[in-house]
Hints:
Layout: H1 2-11, E1 25-27, E2 33-35, H2 36-45, E3 51-53, E4 60-62, H3 75-86, E5 104-106, E6 111-113, H4 115-123, E7 132-134, H5 135-140, E8 161-163, E9 168-170, H6 172-178, E10 186-188, H7 189-244, H8 251-293, H9 303-320, H10 328-338, E11 341-344, E12 354-357, E13 362-365, E14 372-377, E15 383-387, E16 392-395, E17 401-405, E18 411-416, E19 422-426, E20 431-434, H11 450-453, E21 456-460, E22 466-470, E23 475-479, E24 488-491, E25 499-503, E26 506-511, E27 514-519, E28 524-528, E29 536-539, E30 545-551, E31 556-562, E32 568-577, E33 587-590, E34 596-599, E35 603-607
Antiparallel strand pairs: 1-2, 3-4, 5-6, 5-7, 8-9, 8-10, 11-12, 13-35, 14-15, 15-16, 16-17, 18-19, 19-20, 21-22, 22-23, 23-24, 25-26, 26-27, 27-28, 29-30, 30-31, 31-32, 33-34, 34-35
GO molecular function: ubiquitin protein ligase activity; zinc ion binding
InterPro entries: 6-blade_b-propeller_TolB-like (IPR011042), TRIM45/56/19-like (IPR047153), Znf-RING_euk (IPR027370), Znf_B-box (IPR000315), Znf_RING (IPR001841), Znf_RING/FYVE/PHD (IPR013083), Znf_RING_CS (IPR017907)
GO cellular component, one term: nucleoplasm
Amino acid sequence: MAKALKSVIAQNLECPVCLNTFTDPKILSCSHTYCKTCLDNLLECHGNDQMLRCPVCRAETQVPNQDISKLPTNLALKSLIKDVKNQYQFCTNCESDNKRQDVVYCQDCIKYFCVTCHNKHSQRPDFISHEVVAISEILSGKVSVRRYRKCSKHPKEDENCFCSDCRRFACFRCVLMEHTNERHRVIEAAVYKNSHMKSIEELKLKAAKKRSCFQKYVGFIDEQRERVSNVQKQCTYDINKAYEESVRNLTEKKEILIGEVKGMTEGVEKELEEMKKSVVEHITHLTTVDDMVTNKTKIPLDMDALAAHDTLCQDLLEALKQEDPDYKQPRQSSRKGKSVCFKRNVGMDELALGNIVNAGAKNIALPTKNSMNDMVGTPDGRMAVGCHTGGVEIFYADGQHQQTVFKDVRIRSVGFLSDDRYVVLDFSNNITLYTLEYTKLNVMFKTLSNVEGGKAKLTVDGDDQIYVSYKKVKKVKVFSTAGGKAIREIPCDGYEPVQITSYNDYLITASLNTIRLIDKQGVVKYKLTGLDDFPCAAVSQGNTILIAVVQHNVGFVSINEYTNELKHIQNLVIDYKIEKTKRNWYNLQQYRSGEIAFCTPDRLYIFP
Length: 608
């Protein structure tokens, strides 16, 4: 009876999580007790959460400052463990009443042996393969005793059966008396053990695969960070080169520019680092729960241990349900960093070194959605956005909306003469001249109607000649400010002039995926093809050509600078994310102060 009591006590001194004798036992608010180390591991799985869920009853316990050591210690249990460890176990094989102290334990015979009995036991041929462990290793916790628990109702019987429905072990007599109902599925304890170990191995393999998947994702994030870092290095190199070619008193400006690059790229690197941190935490979670669940040294026997392991297995299964990493997010974040570039001043104020472009555009909503039809810089350095719903919206370079003019005119296109008069093309393809005070002038133009010429656009050159492009008839008509009929026509052989811009002695036309530079007789001098749908062009303050192309389906705009022969100079904006619109119609201009204005049907973006 004393031996059975001692066995029951020893079994109840085992932690339900690690299945070893408690070390530094801590009590949760639900009164369940666990090793401090096991609770540390469980809390780590919950990240920064200060609530700890009991693996047995799932009740939550508040952990002050995430410090498990601040939970109360089970002093009675700690003292009992110390007393049990100080007690000697006697040989269970000796037949005499004067039993000797044990030195080893046979895992197969389930007996403790003194020196004499151990010698006899080891000499028997059929016992050579038995697993024998030293008592010192058991007491130190290095080795756990593998045994069936004795039934509390039938102390002489081993609990060598397992009821899958009750989730508990039972002896054969208890099975006959309590588990014969047809709903009870009873199997041998050894069969349950094999099944349990097999499921654990499967979980371990899945966890390893999932861990490998996320580790690969971490590598991809590091690669994206490296690319962004290379952009920062390249920009820094360009800035330093420009600095060395300038005067020595530009040190302060140089440091400011380098700081701008660093500020723009560090934000992206921080985003990528946060992504990596989240994934590493998930890997740690998988590893910690996996290690606790796949403990091979023991099989949970009592109800608390079973409940704890069921909870941990469920936690691992929940972790395994997380979808594999999506590479789109770090790729998009890195794209923001990679779009940063240094634009050096050439032919302007060399002492200013240059500017960091695409540092983040101002994003201004137009007063009316899906309304933009045209955009042009005003003579005084502002930007005029014409809307087909009526009116021209005027914006400053800082994005501030100043006023709305021509509210009752449905705008198709806008231009300015050298004396600052407005030239307005309305939705009926009629041209009207207005003074600076927005007074309509009595000048009539004989233009083609919508039915005759189709959609039209206009531009004004330095000689105050007005060019109107007609999409349907594929030609450009030229008018003087005196009005009346067109003074001449320019053919657009084989293409539709969707947009038109005056450029020195040439015209820039945009159609589908092609930009053309034509002379004023219609001869194509230079052509740039293979662009995204509906590119748009503008003339820069440096008399170069700016071209914007949009990936309409995904909402990315890129802006590049070209020579007067449409040869690429540099990237100004790379894959900048814009809000997708219903209409794939865009316009590009540059403020006199240098900011680049890109307009969609809904929004105005101003790049510094």
